[in-house]
Specification:
By secondary structure, the protein is mainly alpha-helical. It is 67% helix and 3% strand. α4 packs antiparallel against α5.
Amino acid sequence: MAELTITEVSNKYHIKPDTLRYYERIGLIPKVPRRPNGNRYYNDGLQGWLEMIICLRHSGVSIETLVDYAHLLEQGDATLDAREELLKEQLELLEEKRANLDRSIKRLQHKISLYETGEIK
């Protein structure tokens, strides 16, 4: 990876520049370094952090939970257990959502098949 501007990061991750600024403002991502002209630039570390945040957001993890995780991360190794527990809780919630989605998908597939076979007219 290379150092990218806010516009480049926005395009790469399909996220609005305002969202990136918001994430920085609320402490979800570390303070973004700036060039002498004031423009933000995102190094490899920040891009990796953003990839994780975006992945977790897409899976439904709340901003509040991610901010909690970011604050724990800033505190270093003393919070390893707490961070692991937080991620395990999120994984459990996602697995529950997946099970609910799988049930809904099967139900819809069955209903559609009834229409396709003519059992429902």
